[in-house]
Amino acid sequence: MTIRTLLVDDQALVRGGFRLILESAPSIDVVGEACDGAEAVALARTARPDVVLMDVRMPQLDGIDATARIVAAEPATKVIILTTFDLDEYVFAALRAGASGFMLKDVRPAQLVDAVHVVAGGDALLAPSATRRLLDRFAGELPGDERPLPDLRDLTERELDVLRLVAQGLSNAELAAYLVLSEATVKTHVSSVLRKLGLRDRVQAVVLAYDVGLAKPRPR
């Protein structure tokens, strides 16, 4: 299956570099480029990409608003946020807006290709520990959205434990060791948590855990 990908960045050189890398992979097809968020939203409607690589700071419409609009209009489209090493504060808001993960702009070519495959397959892009670093830094500083939170009463005690540990940055292998379960069983529990709470992926599960108080940012 070919993964349809849209590139969004206000720097033509960045877009061109990413296009060269992605088009070297036989399973990835770059279906368009956008230089700002407004153009990205319009292209996402017509090109219907599987994955969008989205810059954050752009003219006309930034990557946060563009992500929210694309995810709302095309729920099957997954958005990867492009960020700098400093993990700027806008990335957290973009994750709330529905992004499936984030990556650094200086990523190696093979990692870029792998990231597109990972997100297209329905998984969160980075290890939960990377997401936790971001949330620990910015949770409580940025306003949340006004959507009602899912009801955790639908989760079993085991599923609550899994959600709490996912938010602490544990991988499936670490979860399995901690809970003395097989990795297959852990994956089943994680999938059940996502399904019951109506979440797209593991990144949104971490954000939710902070929202409901299952996880707390570490003191600075």
TrEMBL record:
Family matches, as InterPro entries: CheY-like_superfamily (IPR011006), NreC/VraR/RcsB-like_REC (IPR058245), Sig_transdc_resp-reg_C-effctor (IPR016032), Sig_transdc_resp-reg_receiver (IPR001789), Tscrpt_reg_LuxR_C (IPR000792), WalR-like (IPR039420)
Molecular function (Gene Ontology), one example: DNA binding
Residues recorded with modification 4-aspartylphosphate: 55
Residue ranges annotated for the HTH luxR-type domain, each copy included: 148-213
SMART domains membership: HTH_LUXR, REC
Positions of the Response regulatory domain: 4-120
Cited Pfam families: GerE (PF00196), Response_reg (PF00072)
CDD domains found in the cross-reference section: LuxR_C_like, REC_NarL-like
PANTHER family: TRANSCRIPTIONAL REGULATORY PROTEIN NARL-RELATED, TWO-COMPONENT RESPONSE REGULATOR
Protein name per UniProt: Two component transcriptional regulator, LuxR family
